Amino acid sequence: MSFKINRINNNSLGTHYGIFQNDELIHHEFSRAAAEKVLTKLRIGKTLEEALKSEPTPKPERVIARFVKPQFSLAKQHKSLFTTAVTTEKKFEYDLVLYRQIANLKVNEIVQVTNRKGHRSTIHITNIVKLSWHQLQLLVSGGSTKFEKQYLLYKEYSTKHQTNSVLKGMSLSQTESSEIQEYIDLFKRNRFSKHTQVNDYITSNSLWGHFPTIRSLNDHGEYKEIEGIEPKYFEVVCRILNISGEGGRSLDNFKKY
Q1: The 3-state secondary structure of the chain, one letter per residue
Q2: Which pLDDT belongs to residue 174?
């Protein structure tokens, strides 16, 4: 079997060194020296698992090891992401395999968040790795790096909202998120620029049955019981599409149906 080391570049994620077996990536390290140590063991016949085992070192005199408990627990298969050192905290490291798992997780969730100044905004999460650092800061309470926040968000959605949520904002329900996404898809697909256009389209095509949660009958002055969506969802759509309220007639009242 043929083993070799290749340098791997990945812009925002830094440089690491991959170990390849017959041109297939089987492991990576963040320093060439570490990668060469693993390569040397593989070439003398050791398995990858054996090559990755750290060699025992004699305990120095008068050295006290302080192991700091991580702020959150990890799945067993990702325990290797934490490295312990004498008098240092455990460090959460980037892992290429885990990053791919995060990138492949499909999410459809709308979260309303508030920054330190009290300004409210809406974030539509579909792909975690495409979220900006600013969005991750608004969404996730823990983590000190972009990858760590991505991982925490991945655990939030891959485990279907277990207790101790990491989210700082308020999530809409899955039903609300799905209906708003379908409403926005109609908006974009037909290149509409106003809510009245998409509402008229839904009415003309008898599609309001697709939106039982967000739909409402709205009163605008002399215009009564106009089919549309509730004000709170109207605001969410405006924030996601970055559009205004069109400068139309103000909403006097609404009711669900």
Answers
A1: CCEEEEEEEEHHHEEEEEEEECCEEEEEECCHHHHHHHHHHHHCCCCHHHHHCCCCCCCCCCCCCCCCCCCCCCCHHHHHHEEEECCEEEEECCCHHHHHHHHHCCCCEEEEEECCCCCEEEEEECCHHHCCHHHHHHHECCCCCHHHHHHHHHHHHHCCCCCCCCECCEECCHHHHHHHHHHHHHHHHCCCCCHHHHHHHHHHCCCHHHCCCCEEEEEECCEEEEEEECHHHHHHHHHHHCCCCCCCCCCCEEECC
A2: 85
